[in-house]
Design goal:
Chain lengths: 141, 209
């Protein structure tokens, strides 16, 4: 589990270093395709708090940011960070705010797809990710 | 049965029905009162836990501090080394980059703040966190929004026109306001994090005994 406890001092130091490096790469990747805003006024936001787990969290406010080539690039970032994952959560304002919670978990070796495409406009329902599997159960607490 | 008797019987049935409704009403009120009592009790427990967590953090207590193992004589089970040695979390002495920042970085990072004030914001976290993992629905963005609104109101109420005029003390006041906020977007988000941490340490404590 990537959110596992990291208590060993070396683990913690390694996690902090990897978090900073991977954060920069995730941000650099997404920056090329959209604008970041922490209140959701633009296309995405990468959470910039290091909670201590081997994860990054990206809020997506524009379905364009879910395009397979962007997701592929994010997956490539993780190749250099074994055991890390990126949680991509959809977070919209307006009518789409009522959509159920959904997203992707990107790992270097797989993509867990928890998108509920039936809510998307028809032009985005075809989204497919190479090496993906559907999420059997996704807990949203 | 005469019409008068029938009427009397109907009245009697009416009275009995009325009694039954009253009984149901009383039972319903009792049930609601009990439910409210339970909820209140649960909230009191949560409040106590949050207060405990908050005070522990201020005192420099660390949940993950190791204990002396069994067979260590009088020290068995006591906290080993470091209790109280961590600087009290009252100021910018020891910035802790890991954890959930009470004030999201985006709110103050681009502001022209006094360095001391900036350190207050940088150093105030819930954490370091041990039991957290992101998911699709943790509401961080709503939290940001609520803190931003509170920040704007806080500055307006104190006549802080320019960010550089905000003192470290005011920054601490603001953080206290956020910690004690009744805004559900703030309270629920922080509460969820704290409860997850507490559950983690309770579980670990049980496992380790």
């Amino acid at each position: 589990m990537n959110g596992r406890n990291l208590e060993d001092a070396d683990d913690v130091a390694a996690q902090e270093l990897q978090w900073a490096q991977s954060y920069a790469q995730v941000e650099n990747t997404l920056y090329r395709f959209g604008k970041s805003h922490y209140l959701g006024h633009c296309d995405y936001w990468v959470v910039d708090d290091n909670w201590g787990c081997r994860q990054h969290k990206v809020y997506v406010n524009n379905l364009e940011m879910l395009s397979p080539n962007i997701v592929k690039l994010l997956q490539k970032v993780l190749v250099g960070f074994p055991g890390w994952e990126i949680v991509v959560a959809l977070d919209f304002e307006g009518p789409a705010k009522s959509w159920p919670k959904m997203g992707l978990i990107i790992r270097s070796n797989e993509i867990v797809d928890d998108l509920k495409r039936q809510y998307f406009p028809s032009s985005y329902r075809h989204l497919k990710y190479e090496g993906s599997r559907y999420a059997p159960v996704f807990t949203n607490d | 049965m005469s019409a008068i008797e029938l009427k009397r019987s109907l009245h009697q049935v009416g009275y009995e029905l009325s009694d039954i409704w009253q009984i149901f009403g009383r039972r319903n009120r009792t049930r609601i009162r009990n439910e409210l009592k339970y909820e209140l009790a649960a909230l009191r427990v949560q409040l106590a836990l949050v207060k405990h967590y908050y005070i522990s953090q201020k005192a420099g207590f660390r949940f993950d501090q190791p204990r002396w193992p069994k067979g260590s004589g009088e020290d068995s089970g006591r906290w080993s080394g470091g209790v109280g040695t961590q600087a009290p979390n009252t100021g910018p002495v020891a910035p802790r980059p890991r954890g959930h920042h009470i004030v999201p970085g985006e709110i103050y990072r681009n502001e022209d703040l006094h360095p001391e004030t900036r350190r207050v914001f940088e150093g105030e976290t819930i954490g370091p966190l041990r039991a957290q993992a992101h998911n699709n629905g943790d509401g961080h963005r709503e939290y940001n929004k609520a803190v931003q609104e509170t920040f704007d109101r806080f500055k307006a109420e104190r006549g802080i026109a320019r960010s550089e005029d905000m003192t470290p003390n005011q920054a601490r006041q603001f953080i206290d306001e956020i910690r004690g906020s009744a805004d559900p977007r703030i309270r629920n988000f922080n509460m969820r994090i704290i409860m997850r941490e507490l559950r983690f340490f309770i579980r670990r404590g049980r496992g380790g005994e």
